C-alpha cells in the first residue's frame, strides 16, 4: 500500500469518527447555545413572560442589576454560602467515606442509607427540614424541651442569621452523601499492594489515611468539591420551600432573585440580567478549584 493510499485511509477514518460524533456535538451546542442567546437577548431588551424582546435597551438592565444593593447582597451571600456549604459537605463526606472504607460498616446496607437523602426531591428535603425547625412541635423544639425545659422556643427560619444556617444544614444533609459515595468509590480503587506495602513499613491508622489514602483520592475530593460548589451556587428549592428568601432578604440568593423577577414580577429582562451576573460570578468562583482538581488528577 502506497503512502498516498494510507493517508487517504486515515482521512476517511477521521471523517467516519467525526460523523459518529457530530450528532452529539450538534445537540450539545444547540442545547447550550439557545438558552445563552435567549438570556443575552432578554437582558438587553424589555422582556416579559408574554412578550419577550420588546424594546432594545442596551446594557441598561445589566448596569441596573449590577448596581442594585439587593442583587449585590444576594450575590455575596450566595458566594459565601456556597463556599462554606461546599467545604463542609466535602469534609464531612470525605471523613464518612474514610470511616466506611476502614470499618466493617461498608456493606451495601450502609451505602443504601447514605443514598436516601439523595433520593429525596429537594422540595421534600425542604419540607422535612422546615418541620424539624418548626419552633412549636418540631424535632429541635422537642429536644429543647427535654434539655432546657422552660426556655423559649428558637424560631430558626424566622431569625435573620439562623435562617440561612438552617438552609445550609439541610443542604449539607442532602448532598454530603454524594461526596461520600464519590470518595468511597475512589478509595475502593486503591491498589491493595500499595496498602499492604505501606502497612509493612509501619503505616497504620491515621498515618495510613494521611500518607496513602487521602493523597491517592485527592483528585476525586477536589472534583467533588467543584461539583458541590456549583450545586450550592445555584440553590433555589430549599430557599423557596423553607424561607421564601426571608426574613426580609436575609436568605435571598441569586437563583431566588432570578425566579422572583422573572416569574413573580414578570420582568424577564431583569431576571436575565441577574442570570448573567450569576454566570460571571460562578465562572470566577469555580475556575480556581477546577484548575486545582485538574492538577490533582494529573
From TrEMBL:
Q: Does the keyword Aminoacyl-tRNA synthetase apply?
A: no
The cross-references to InterPro entries, in alphabetical order and at most eight, read:
MetI-like, MetI-like_sf, UgpAE/MalFG_permease
Compartments where located = Cell membrane
Report the transmembrane regions from the record: 20-44, 79-100, 112-132, 161-190, 211-236, 272-293
Q: How does it sit in the membrane?
A: Multi-pass membrane protein
Q: Which residues form the ABC transmembrane type-1 domain?
A: 75-289
Q: Which UniProt keywords apply?
A: Cell membrane, Membrane, Transmembrane, Transmembrane helix, Transport
Q: Which family does it belong to?
A: Belongs to the binding-protein-dependent transport system permease family.
Entry's PANTHER family? BLL4140 PROTEIN (PTHR43227), DIACETYLCHITOBIOSE UPTAKE SYSTEM PERMEASE PROTEIN DASB (PTHR43227:SF8)
Q: What is this protein called?
A: ABC transporter permease
What species is this protein from?
A: Microbacterium nanhaiense
Amino acid at each position: 500500500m502506497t503512502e498516498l493510499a494510507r493517508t487517504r485511509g486515515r482521512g476517511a477514518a477521521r471523517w467516519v469518527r467525526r460523523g459518529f460524533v457530530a450528532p452529539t456535538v450538534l445537540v450539545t451546542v444547540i442545547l447550550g447555545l439557545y438558552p445563552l442567546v435567549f438570556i443575552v437577548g432578554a437582558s438587553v431588551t424589555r422582556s416579559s413572560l408574554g412578550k419577550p424582546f420588546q424594546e432594545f435597551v442596551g446594557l441598561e438592565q445589566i448596569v441596573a442589576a449590577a448596581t442594585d444593593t439587593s442583587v449585590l447582597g444576594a450575590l455575596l451571600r450566595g458566594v459565601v454560602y456556597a463556599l462554606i456549604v461546599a467545604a463542609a459537605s466535602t469534609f464531612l463526606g470525605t471523613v464518612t467515606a474514610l470511616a466506611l472504607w476502614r470499618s466493617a460498616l461498608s456493606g451495601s446496607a450502609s451505602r443504601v442509607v447514605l443514598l436516601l437523602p439523595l433520593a429525596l426531591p429537594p422540595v421534600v428535603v425542604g419540607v422535612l427540614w422546615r418541620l424539624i425547625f418548626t419552633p412549636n412541635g418540631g424535632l429541635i423544639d422537642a429536644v429543647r424541651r427535654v434539655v432546657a425545659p422552660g426556655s423559649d422556643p428558637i424560631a430558626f427560619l424566622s431569625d435573620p442569621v439562623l435562617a440561612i444556617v438552617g438552609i445550609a444544614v439541610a443542604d449539607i444533609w442532602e448532598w454530603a452523601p454524594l461526596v461520600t459515595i464519590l470518595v468511597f468509590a475512589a478509595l475502593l480503587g486503591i491498589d491493595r499492594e500499595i496498602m499492604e506495602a505501606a502497612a509493612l513499613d509501619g503505616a497504620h491508622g491515621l498515618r495510613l489515611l494521611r500518607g496513602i489514602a487521602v493523597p491517592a483520592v485527592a483528585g476525586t475530593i477536589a472534583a467533588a468539591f467543584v461539583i458541590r460548589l456549583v450545586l450550592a451556587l445555584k440553590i433555589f428549592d430549599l430557599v423557596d420551600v423553607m424561607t421564601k428568601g426571608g426574613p426580609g432578604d436575609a436568605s435571598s440568593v441569586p437563583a431566588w432573585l432570578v425566579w422572583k423577577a422573572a416569574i413573580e414580577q414578570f420582568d424577564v429582562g431583569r431576571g436575565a440580567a441577574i442570570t448573567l451576573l450569576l454566570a460571571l460570578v460562578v465562572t470566577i468562583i469555580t475556575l480556581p478549584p477546577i484548575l486545582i482538581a485538574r492538577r490533582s488528577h494529573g
